[in-house]
Amino acid sequence: ERVQSEAEAEATDGPEQEYMYESELTESTDSPAVQKPSELVGVCTRDSSEVVQTATRAEVRSQNLPHRCTYCLIVDGSEKKVLVQKRVAWKETYPSHYDPCPGGVMGPEETYEGNAVRELAEEMGIVVGSALSPRSVEPLFEFWFEDDRVRNWGLLLKVVFEGGIKDLTLQESEVESVRWMDRRELGMLLEEGPISPDAAVAIRRWLHEDPEALIPKKTRSQGFGKPWQPTFTAPEPGGQSTK
Which residue of 17, 32, 132, 138 lies most exposed, with the fewest beta carbons within 10 A? Predict the structure, then answer.
């Protein structure tokens, strides 16, 4: 897979989505440590996303406490592609995995929308309300995810980004690279990985509930073939969706 430099990105007239914009960091050989261990996190329960207490991020990770997270689905202006990031090798959860809906752990007083706006600016340099992202974030659905590393309530939110790869400012401590993916490429990522499993749950449900997502309108109207469909089973109350 070819990686395009910043200079090449600005000089290239071809399709931008074919390339990746990669942060220049060397990989750590140490095992992933908790990032921002003293950061305060809102702790909830397996039955509800309502915050019931506060803990540090280190406590949340060591005890796998239930908490809240945002998942930001970043689509291009034509809503045909999704911006997918690759997590750095030293992330505390799912290092070096691809993430089609980046977001973040929420503080005790944060709202989902407020956290999403903050995380988009910090991780990607996407400023909601700016010329390149003029629309507000759109909440889609809440879901529960659980494995041996993470237990959290997540909210998937959609944001439209009308800029290109070169308009992003990646947070080097979090993001290794980014690229645009269409529905077929997302399907391949879900089947082959590596993809963050919590993000996979959100993306599978989104594609299941919106069969025409990322499909050009012309293709929809002419009925060219059957689009790729994910396997998805709705979760039981308080339970986890299949990945």
Answer: 138
Contacts of 185 (CB under 8 A, 6+ apart): none
What is the separation of C-alpha 93 from the centre of its chain, rounded to a whole number of angstroms?
A: 13
Residue bearing tokens 């399709």: 15
Cα 194 from Cα 97, distance rounded (Å): 5
Secondary-structure breakdown of the chain: helix, strand, coil percentages, each rounded to the nearest 5:
25, 25, 50
Round to the nearest angstrom and report the end-to-end CA distance of the chain: 26
**pLDDT 10s per residue in the chain (243 long)?**
333 444 444 444 443 443 343 433 333 335 478 989 999 999 999 999 999 999 999 999 999 999 999 999 999 999 999 999 999 999 999 999 999 999 999 999 999 999 999 999 999 999 999 999 999 999 999 999 999 999 999 999 999 999 999 999 999 999 999 999 999 999 999 999 999 999 999 999 999 998 888 887 655 444 444 444 554 454 554 554 443
Instruction: Give just the sign of the alpha carbon dihedral 217, 138, 162, 104.
Output: negative
Kindly report the pTM of this predicted structure. 0.79
